[in-house]
Amino acid sequence: MDLDVYVTAHHAEWDRLDHLLRRGRRLTGAEADELVALYQRTATHLSVIQSTAPDPALTARLTQLVARARANVTGTRRASWQDVVQFLTAGFPAAVYRSRHWWIPTAVLSTLLAVIMGWWIGTHPEVQAAIAAPEELRQLTRPGGDYETYYSSHPATSFAAQVWTNNARAAAMCLVLGAFLCVPVLWILFVNMLNLAVGIGLMSSAGRLDTFLGLVLPHGLLELTAVFVAAGTGLRLGWTLIDPGPYSRRTAMAQQGRAAIGMAIGLALVLFVSGVIEGFVTPSGLPTWARIAIGVAAEAAFLLYVYVLGGRAAREGDAGDVDAADRSAELPTAA
Asked: Kindly report the CA angle at 185 between 320 and 265, in degrees rounded to 5?
């Protein structure tokens, strides 16, 4: 295609569309109809130019023009409570369900790593000595020591808020930093598993592993699951940059990125629940079995939520992405 000839044939239409857009709402009925027709033709022109004779400057101009016209024609869509319900009952659980092949292996391997590191720390006194002095280790692991008093060291409300903020930040970092070829996500996972392993190793060496698990499991099951989901999704995002599949790299990253942003919001809600459990249930005077039962119930409820609601929504085609009407048009790619 001769680009100069094509531009000469259609630039008057583009200029006319720009003129109508500048007039805003001061259009007659006929002019409004003309604007819609010009918008449709210009969108076609943009697609043709992008696929046959891409010119950066012209493509940028027409992209901006089409975006302005689209906003003028379709109007600005405002979120409603229906969107919130749709997100919580379909979009978010579907996104978690569809990424299960990433976060489940992440959870299994990370937990195995934490157990191995915990065993290594617990069975090697020289490693424990490198972590802290003997007096500090005794202060951490003794009855009424730092590990036990940590969860009741602050008022429950402020402690729950602090825990929620820290965990939500870690989950968001996993989701966002996955775009950097997965490396930051692996580091965040390793640090979290190392912290868990230190507690396992030191308390097991003191013969108090049951006490440690009784403190960690009530909130830790749901909290770690949320972190594993975030990490798995971040790794999936990073892998999409390496292998975008049948889509262009830009389109695939945009799709996965939008789903990841939605998951960050959903996981913040999940971590809020785990923060409430950590702030109010873990340090409570309930028997250990009752506290663990609450944690198991919360974890089971989340997994049922993902596999029942999310599985159904995923089978119906929901990918956790925004509605097709709210996405930019995508050019076909060659098979």
From this structure: 35
pLDDT digits (tens, 9 = 90+) for 212-241: 999 999 999 999 999 999 999 888 888 888
**Whole-number Å distance between alpha carbons of 287 and 212:** 14
SS (H, E, C) 169-185: HHHHHHHHHCCCCCHHH
pLDDT, tens digit, 9 for 90 and up, residues 39-80: 888 888 888 887 777 777 888 888 888 888 887 776 555 556
Structure confidence by residue, pLDDT tens digits, 137-196: 999 899 988 888 887 766 767 667 777 777 777 787 887 777 676 788 899 899 989 999
Distance CA 302, CA 97 (A): 11
What is the per-residue burial (b if ≥16 Cβ within 10 Å, else e) of 285-307? eeeeeebbebbeebbeebeebbe
On whether the CB atoms of residues 240 and 256 are closer than 8 A, the answer is yes
d(CA 108, CA 201): 19
Residues 222, 100, 96, CA angle at the centre, nearest 5°? 65
Strand ranges (DSSP E) for 148-242?
A: none
Q: Tokens 């939008």 map to which residue?
A: 258
Residues whose CB is less than 8 angstroms from the CB of residue 296 and which lie 6 or more positions away in sequence, other chains included: 217, 221
Question: Are the beta carbons of 94 and 310 closer than 8 angstroms?
Answer: yes
Q: Which residues contact 168 (CB under 8 A, 6 or more apart)?
A: 267, 268, 271, 272
**pTM for this prediction:** 0.71
75: left (phi over 0), alpha (psi -120 to 50) or beta: left
